[in-house]
Structures are given as structure tokens and as C-alpha cells.
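Milestone M4 deliverable, item 7.
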Amino acid sequence: MATTKPKARAAAAPPVEGEAPARLLTISVIIPVYNERETIREALRRVRALDWPKEILVVDDASTDGSAEILAQEPGIRCLCHPRNLGKGMAIRTALEVATGDVVVIQDADLEYDPQDVPRLIALIARGEARAVYGSRFLNGRPPMRLANYICNRILAATANLLYGAGITDEATCYKAIDMQLLRDLDLRCRRFEFCPEVTAKLGRRGQRILEVPIRYVPRSFDAGKKIRWWDGAQALWTLIRYRFSK
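Output delivered:
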């Protein structure tokens, strides 16, 4: 168990002469969707604009607001559908069953995260510097989020560092880029928002290094459709603790 406060690991500098060249990787962008009709078109447009070999896997988690009808008209994606609402974690697990890329990237269906930041995460994996890279909302200072959310995020990161020596600043970030085979080997059990702590805990148990790069973040309000609640933070904390002492 780590006893000293770890330093956050930021992105490496651009490659210089003598460094290993980046491998050409394909990415599987997984987008869980539940009632996101107001943002899903723009989110998909931004993901499609990524200049990187990719497949876009969208999982509609039994939306009731017309999101499914919108997705049926969107080009360049593979859409999977849950017959009933199962949660974000289950949506990610559903997409993992059919994903074919070298690296998985999780993308929310709202506009809180900017897909233009994704290549910076993938580049570290392509250069062989890590098999897991997180996009941190905190490396550039405090993001414009509610105080309660800020405190919860800081507690989760501190817990991951204390229990696993993760050396990260943002455990609950949506942007996680992970080697496909590594992610599948973690044997995920998550159903809802406990995907993030489960992945972090299981990477920590394996001694896998997690690198971070700074990302942009524009939080949305609950009125605008934000779904995570205080009890999800409590569940995340419990998940980190539970996996420290059990499989």
C-alpha cells in the first residue's frame, strides 16, 4: 500500500530523434447513450472528425426520448441496443464484446468532453509508453465544476492513490484509453457508473502504470441531463475499497 503522496504523471513531450516511433493503432470509440437526443448528433460529428483509424460503437441503453431514432439515421457508426436500461457499465461491456480496435476509448454522449483531446491519449499508447492513459480534468487546475463534485473527485483520486499507488489526479474521468486486450483481461463486472473505479482498481492490482494528459472539460447541469448522483460517488468509493481486498 502506498504511503507517500504520488506525483501526477502528465503527458510526455513530443518524440525526438532516437525515440521509438508511434505504432499505427486503430481505436474503438465506445459511446454509451441514454436519453441524449439534444447532444448525440454533435457528439458523433466530433468523434467522426477524429483523424485516426477508428470504429464508433454506440450502445443505446433503452432510451425513451428519441435518441434511438436519431442513431438509426447517423452514418459511420455501429449501433447496439439494450432492450431495457442496464447502465453505463453494461453498455461498455456490450460494446467490448464486438469491438475490433487495438485500443478502447470511452466517450460520453454529451458535450462535456472534447474528442479533439483523444489523439493525445492514444499517442502515448502508440509510442509504447503505457497501456492505459487517462485524460485528467485537473492537471491544468480546477475545472468549472460544482464544489461538491470537485470534492468527490478529489476523494476518489486520493483513494485510488492510497490503495493502489495509482499516481493519478482524476479517477472518475470519462476519457480512459486502454489497450483492448488488457481491458478485456480485467474481467469487468460493472453495471452502472462503477466502471471507472473498477478499471482503476484492477489496473492497480496488476501493477499497470496509468499515464495522464490534461483535457478540456465543460460540465453540464442536472437540468441539462447530467445523470450521475451523489450515491454514484459513494458506490465508486466502495468499489475502490472492495477491489483492494477482494477479486
